[in-house]
Amino acid sequence: MIDKLKLVSHVDAINWNKIEDEKDVEVWNRLVNNFWLPEKIPLSNDVQSWNQLTPVEQQLTMRVFTGLTLLDTIQGTVGAVSLIPDAITPHEEAVYTNIAFMESVHAKSYSSIFSTLASTKEIDEAFRWSTENENLQKKASIVMDYYQGDDPLKRKVASVLLESFLFYSGFYLPMYFSSRARLTNTADLIRLIIRDEAVHGYYIGYKFQKGLEGATQERKDEIKDYTFNLMYELYENEVQYTQDLYDQVGLTEDVKKFLHYNANKALMNLGYEAMFPKSVTDVNPAILSALSPNADENHDFFSGSGSSYVIGKAVNTEDDDWDF
Amino acid sequence: MLLQADSTRESTVGSVDGVTDAGVDAGDVDIVFFSSISGNTARFVEKLGRPAARIPLYPKDAPLIARRPYVLVVPTYGGGSLGPAVPRQVIRFLNDERNRSLIRGVIGAGNTNFGEAFCLAGDIIAQKCGVPHMYRFEVFGTPDDVATVHEGLEEFWKQQP
């Protein structure tokens, strides 16, 4: 049980006309504008594509999505909520309630995918797998332990590593399918989840860095050691989890690069330098393109490696002509 | 490794010579950048170790006026449909014809997780100003990003008339 989680002891009426940290308003507006529901995505258009997957691919998909469901459930029910008592501003508390709700939307959206594509028997089997897979359960219990601890900064570290790192062994698969024009509507939904998690990781990481600002060097060293130790612990488990899922389809090494790439960004969200060198973060370009159509290498003007760089045609502009 | 939030370093980045009625002279810098209070872009620019000027955050701040050709570093955060991707502070800066005439390239910052919005502000400015979108990096850039951009800019300015 989560007996150490406490509630905020005192609450004043929240005044959105008196802002202490403008990032709270900016992120609140961003999250509200990004709001979506799975019902808006035409998942049923993926039924034909689903039927063309092999039984192994179908089972893999179900397992990956139950794993993601578990993480979103944790983050919605415990993770984001556990950050509320540590908030510095009332608006920060409100942002966490938004994050918590959206995680519950994410968790529910996997069930929309399941009910559209799979039978009750397949769904039940996948959920049973999620409770029986040791590495999935271990990653859940590692994060849950830190959420129940009594250190606000450590909770934020665990939260950012979940939002910005732990999801990606799962997110890989729909991006992989999308790059092959399979389950493309499902991929659209997953991209919305990815976008949300990116804002969450950015915001919680920002609040973490704010919290660390006034700390002693000793405390900063302690938190940094803790962060990298937790990252190593989670990474080691994540590699095993990746093997459990992807060995059977021969994609494990490709997924690991994606893990390294995202581990670096998770650390950067916390203000730390990237840990994995370029040689192991060379994510398959097809996966990057599935993530963001702008993420290809052709934009590196400096290296000359790309075939071309984007140069817009000059547009005559008047001084007031900047209505983007 | 620096741990404090980058907003505290605002005063250490940039070389502002002085404030006039017309605005703040950007000084002898070849990088102009925008960074929100989370300071990721400021941190990237700081790691480049080149003279740089920061576009002011607030409307009440005196506007920045570029004095010599520069490359603009600009982030895009969040995706979705929240108004324009280009920060309003950057629009204000580029609305000044003196500044617009001196831009030579754009470097975008962001996160591929924002999908189509990844470095979108850089694309828009590159197209609007007819300059190359030279490079894209994520969050505050990896050491490899910093090295590539540093060397790239060194070469680029050598080749400029």
From TrEMBL, chain A:
<keyword id="KW-0479">Metal-binding</keyword>
<comment type="function">
    <text>Provides the precursors necessary for DNA synthesis. Catalyzes the biosynthesis of deoxyribonucleotides from the corresponding ribonucleotides.</text>
</comment>
<dbReference type="GO" id="GO:0009263">
    <property type="term" value="P:deoxyribonucleotide biosynthetic process"/>
</dbReference>
<feature type="binding site">
    <location>
        <position position="163"/>
    </location>
    <ligand>
        <name>Fe cation 2</name>
    </ligand>
</feature>
<dbReference type="Pfam" id="PF00268">
    <property type="entry name" value="Ribonuc_red_sm"/>
</dbReference>
<dbReference type="GO" id="GO:0004748">
    <property type="term" value="F:ribonucleoside-diphosphate reductase activity, thioredoxin disulfide as acceptor"/>
</dbReference>
<dbReference type="GO" id="GO:0005971">
    <property type="term" value="C:ribonucleoside-diphosphate reductase complex"/>
</dbReference>
<feature type="binding site">
    <location>
        <position position="72"/>
    </location>
    <ligand>
        <name>Fe cation 1</name>
    </ligand>
</feature>
<keyword id="KW-0408">Iron</keyword>
<protein>
    <recommendedName>
        <fullName>Ribonucleoside-diphosphate reductase subunit beta</fullName>
        <ecNumber>1.17.4.1</ecNumber>
    </recommendedName>
</protein>
<feature type="binding site">
    <location>
        <position position="200"/>
    </location>
    <ligand>
        <name>Fe cation 2</name>
    </ligand>
</feature>
<comment type="subunit">
    <text>Tetramer of two alpha and two beta subunits.</text>
</comment>
<dbReference type="InterPro" id="IPR009078">
    <property type="entry name" value="Ferritin-like_SF"/>
</dbReference>
<keyword id="KW-0215">Deoxyribonucleotide synthesis</keyword>
<feature type="active site">
    <location>
        <position position="110"/>
    </location>
</feature>
<feature type="binding site">
    <location>
        <position position="197"/>
    </location>
    <ligand>
        <name>Fe cation 2</name>
    </ligand>
</feature>
<dbReference type="InterPro" id="IPR030475">
    <property type="entry name" value="RNR_small_AS"/>
</dbReference>
<dbReference type="InterPro" id="IPR012348">
    <property type="entry name" value="RNR-like"/>
</dbReference>
<dbReference type="GO" id="GO:0046872">
    <property type="term" value="F:metal ion binding"/>
</dbReference>
<feature type="binding site">
    <location>
        <position position="103"/>
    </location>
    <ligand>
        <name>Fe cation 2</name>
    </ligand>
</feature>
<feature type="binding site">
    <location>
        <position position="103"/>
    </location>
    <ligand>
        <name>Fe cation 1</name>
    </ligand>
</feature>
<feature type="binding site">
    <location>
        <position position="106"/>
    </location>
    <ligand>
        <name>Fe cation 1</name>
    </ligand>
</feature>
From TrEMBL, chain B:
<dbReference type="Pfam" id="PF07972">
    <property type="entry name" value="Flavodoxin_NdrI"/>
</dbReference>
<dbReference type="GO" id="GO:0010181">
    <property type="term" value="F:FMN binding"/>
</dbReference>
<dbReference type="InterPro" id="IPR004465">
    <property type="entry name" value="RNR_NrdI"/>
</dbReference>
<comment type="similarity">
    <text>Belongs to the NrdI family.</text>
</comment>
<protein>
    <recommendedName>
        <fullName>Protein NrdI</fullName>
    </recommendedName>
</protein>
<dbReference type="InterPro" id="IPR020852">
    <property type="entry name" value="RNR_Ib_NrdI_bac"/>
</dbReference>
<dbReference type="InterPro" id="IPR029039">
    <property type="entry name" value="Flavoprotein-like_sf"/>
</dbReference>
<comment type="function">
    <text>Probably involved in ribonucleotide reductase function.</text>
</comment>
